[in-house]
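Hi R.,

Here's the input for the PRP complex you asked about:
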Amino acid sequence: MTDPNLRVLISSDRIQARIRELGEQISRDYPDGPLHLICILKGATFFMSDLARALKRDVFVDFMGISTYGKGKTSSGEVKVTKDLDISLEGADVLVVEDIVDSGVTLNYLLHVLEQRRPRSIRIVALLDKPERRLRPVDVSYVGFQIPDEFVVGYGLDYANAYRNLRDVSVLAPHVYES
Ligand code: PRP
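And here is the predicted structure with PRP in place:
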């Protein structure tokens, strides 16, 4: 079924091929020992599930919920942890898994929170990066795709909670969210 409001930006095949590459690269970059994957709810769950299986090493998986107000509109977006981790990060190699970095407000805040938990190392992997939208600096170690400033849905990304389960990343027609 084709949705006339969607235009495919990154096909499922390209996403999966890029995740295999990221899996190889990340597996090479880390020494032995488990890698702690922290998935930021909810959009990143799809990416984390595929990335974890592309990593040729032991992983621990944990989840964190964040809510942000004023995100993308001002540089003073207010961020709150709504679901905390279950596993301690002390001495751990941590990889934060995000579906998209937009203003950078969420990750900029989150890194400060996580660094206080004394991990051995902490890096970020994001499937999508919209550098044009950045309001706060964020060092993203691994990026799947840099994309233009368009409203995208699918592969975890939503509009009003819909579209998350689509296999491709697609641009949503503006009249859908502007109406
Ligand atoms: C998205 C995304 C990041 C954040 C990035 O989450 O998953 O967490 O926005 O935006 P920023 O760089 O401007 O902070 P969202 O708030 O849409 O939540 P969801 O994943 O539960 O849909």
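One thing worth noting: Residues 79 and 110 are 9 Å apart (CA to CA).

Cheers,
M.
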